[in-house]
Amino acid sequence: MTMEIASARTAVAKPPAPGLISRRVLGNVALGLVLLAVPFWLPLVGGYTDLASRVLIYALAAMGLNLLLGFTGGLSFGHAAYFGLGAYGVGLMLKYETHSILLALLVGTLVGGIAATLLGPIAVRRRGIYFAMITIAIGQMFYFLAVRWNSLTGGEDGLTGFSRHPIKLPGLTVPMGSVGFFYLVLVCFGACALLLWTVLNSPLGHTFVGIRENYKRLIFLGVRTKRYLAISFAISGFVVALAGGLNALLDNFTSPNTLNYTLSGDFLIIAVLGGMRNFWGPLAGAVIFILVRDYVSSITDNWMTVIGLIFVLSVLFFPLGILGFFNRKSAS
Amino acid sequence: MGLILLFNAFNGLIQGAFYALMALGLALILGLNNTINFAQGAFMALAAYFAFTLVPYTGFWGALIAAPLLAGVIGFAVETVLVRRLYSRKDPIYTLLLTFGLALIIQDMIRTIWGAQGKPLAIPGFLNHPLSNTYFFLTGYRLFVVAVALIGTGALFAVLRFTRIGIRIRAGNADLETISALGVNIYLLRTANFIIGIVFAGVAGILAAGQLGLNPTMGDALIMPAFVAIVVGGVGSLVGSLLGGLIIGLASGITTAFFPAASEVVIYVIMGIMLVVRPRGLLGQEGLFE
């Protein structure tokens, strides 16, 4: 076991950066500062805080998906299912059980994540196009469940009747207005980014990358590739479910559309557009995708065509994504 | 009870014939073009709307033939301008996302041209007439759907079996590189194959519209059962897709008799069971597209 992981590590590990503080660390610190200051500078350039929350939520979902997609090589077209399960989990908890949004988020994340953990092993039985079709179909199963199970989910009209309550910590009450909620999203985003970063730089993450790069070879080396694919599937499911829960909190509403494969398509294009081989690619993709959608839908009824064009053009001209495109430019 | 069950099973089979027709078009394109055509549902809707516009001029029968061909022309343009560029990319994600984006664009175009409201598609009066009221409620239209599905499937298999292009398509499915080396223009072949797949989608779309009416998103609800049919039947086998369509139609019909709310979910359950018991599907080839 240790041997093949060691070889996988040498295949992907980069040489240590020179100097005490590398450019990468500086970049991440700068990114963190920019994000922390969003509520202060965004209104100045004509944005609003909820829009930033939406960007971060979609970025979080796409980053979770990207662990499976970009780093393990599993093309899931059904991750909206776990997003939607997280959303319904949070909505139902807040509506019937509790006023603590942290508890609701925990439950929503667990519901979506456990579903992914249970269904991943079925999906990873096949790879490639087949894997994509299976994940879509599993996702649509939840979609139809939500549409049909009227008494619980509210059917096609969606689930309403819950709202964000202030977070009560011992000796501290955090209000959940737009700004307060943005920081909650940011904390979740940061924690998950740290988690994904840690995973990717661990032997586990190197095994994932090995599976992406050469599936057969890893089988020959004795790695249980399907098991690792399922692990990657599960981790990404938990992250996506948390994003879904946050999305329900942002809207105080959730509908079967949060389970539908069209949303999975949105997450995929966010990852591809930003650069699915780059850690921060999905964040870049989410910024572009959400801002364009927000702007275009305010000026024309044909915004779906514009979104469709984003799909077509980014597939044709930016197969490596925006970040991949610039990285290659700067490398050459 | 037994009679109701029989009736629902029969209805399910009719639905299954329809799914099979959809799945065949998808499976054709998947086989030779290595593309999951997400826009298949949008092409269905497009053909149905073409038919809607053509019916006043050509009548239903003329539209049934002309509209899928028109959709085929659009399919030709899409394949030569866009899809073709991606054949060399190994990762299936690109064609998936491309056709997904195309589906959005086509849907939006339909909405802009014909409006978002649902419309009825006029079908000949005698098809609307109930054939039997005693035990089954059965309109001629449902039988007509089965007849078209049978004719379409029969024609496809005849083409694949007996014509030169059909033999090349089958050979291409087996080994594209070799037939290319033998002098077959595989780009032309793939284009032709794509068009045939779209024409199939078009016919299915018109049939669906005759029953359910037209709306821009009509394809969305129909493409998923076709995916499931392919997974159940096995990727790489057209007969498998056919069987898969019939099986899920039947299952969905029988479930309607007992537990109507689950009639959509049951096909995914069947797919799940199939994946656990026999991952490659009924007649699928091991390791294809993996």
From TrEMBL, chain A:
Signal peptide: none
Claim: Cell membrane is one of the keywords in the record: yes
InterPro entries: ABC_transp_permease, LivM-like
Transmembrane segments: 25-44, 56-81, 101-122, 129-149, 180-200, 228-247, 267-291, 303-326
Keyword tags: Cell membrane, Membrane, Transmembrane, Transmembrane helix
CDD domains in UniProt: TM_PBP1_LivM_like
Chief subcellular location: membrane
Cellular compartment(s): Cell membrane
One Pfam family this sequence matches: BPD_transp_2
Its membrane topology: Multi-pass membrane protein
Protein's name in the database: Branched-chain amino acid ABC transporter permease
Organism: Acidiphilium iwatense
Lineage of source species: Bacteria, Pseudomonadati, Pseudomonadota, Alphaproteobacteria, Acetobacterales
TrEMBL record, chain B:
Record has Secreted as a keyword: no
Localisation per UniProt entry: Cell membrane
Transmembrane segment boundaries: 12-31, 38-55, 61-82, 94-114, 134-159, 194-214, 226-251, 257-277
Family matches, as InterPro entries: ABC_transp_permease (IPR001851), BCAA_transport_permease (IPR052157)
Pfam families (alphabetical): BPD_transp_2
Keywords for the protein's UniProt record, in alphabetical order: Amino-acid transport, Cell membrane, Membrane, Transmembrane, Transmembrane helix, Transport
Bilayer topology term: Multi-pass membrane protein
Keyword Kinase tagged: no
Sequence similarity: Belongs to the binding-protein-dependent transport system permease family. LivHM subfamily.
Protein name listed in UniProt: Branched-chain amino acid ABC transporter permease
